[in-house]
Design goal:
about 25% helix, alpha+beta, single chain
Length: about 230
């Protein structure tokens, strides 16, 4: 069965809001990928697509800009490849009007000489914009809370073990969970504050959620810059 999505335009958005629903982004491009690439991207593109609509930030919110480091967790950035460029372009095209971002960064880290998503160990996506409710945004990026303990992303990917963690000195919120990727579970953490949101995915599937949350705090410390 073909999945239907709301048509673009002010009238369709008004109809959705009147019905108490939320606009949904088009089917993300990563559905055309297989294997490890799906695991790395499903927790970022689809998850970020669930963030609530942004509104203009107030003067009380400290404004920060995302600038990912050249090296992180002892790993250099992987060489750019078509999959990374396509991920950035597709996500920006589908979400720019909704979040009015100041900038978006999509960066993968891996061993020296690694290229593209297929050889990446960590995938980081960050956006500078306006996030009115950090706690809600961080948890909803990962499917939201479920009384049964299991939820799903919009594309049906199973999400388990959703937990929140100390966001650290930058404030906001951090939530982490495990995403089902064929025969394994990938740890992913999402963060949000008043002016940034993003996620960090462990493509090796070896980190605990606690360890990935700590690494997410480290990433934020290096990637978020006051403006």
């Amino acid at each position: 069965m073909t999945e239907e999505h709301p048509q673009s335009g002010v009238d369709s958005l008004r109809a959705i809001w009147a019905a108490g629903q939320e606009p949904q982004p088009p089917v993300p491009w990563y559905r055309r990928l297989t294997g490890k690439q799906i695991g790395l991207t499903v927790g970022t593109v689809a998850a970020l697509g669930l963030v609530v609509l942004g509104v203009a930030a107030t003067s009380e919110v400290e404004q920060r800009r995302i600038a990912m480091p050249a090296e992180f967790a002892g790993l250099p950035r992987v060489a750019e490849a078509q999959d990374l460029a396509q991920l950035h372009a597709q996500w920006e095209a589908e979400n720019a009007k909704r979040y009015v971002p100041r900038n978006i960064e999509v960066v993968a880290y891996g061993q020296p000489g690694a290229t593209g998503l297929e050889e990446a160990e960590l995938l980081a996506i960050g956006l500078s914009g306006s996030v009115p409710d950090a706690a809600e945004a961080a948890t909803r990026m990962l499917g939201g809370y479920s009384p049964a303990g299991v939820s799903t992303l919009r594309d049906g990917t199973e999400v388990t073990d959703l937990q929140t963690f100390d966001p650290g000195p930058l404030g906001g919120a951090i939530a982490c969970a495990r995403l089902q990727d064929t025969d394994r579970e990938l740890p992913v953490c999402a963060w949000a504050d008043g002016s940034t949101l993003g996620s960090l995915t462990d493509g090796t599937a070896t980190l605990t959620l606690e360890a990935l949350a700590a690494r997410t705090r480290e990433l934020r410390a290096q990637a978020e810059h006051r403006v």
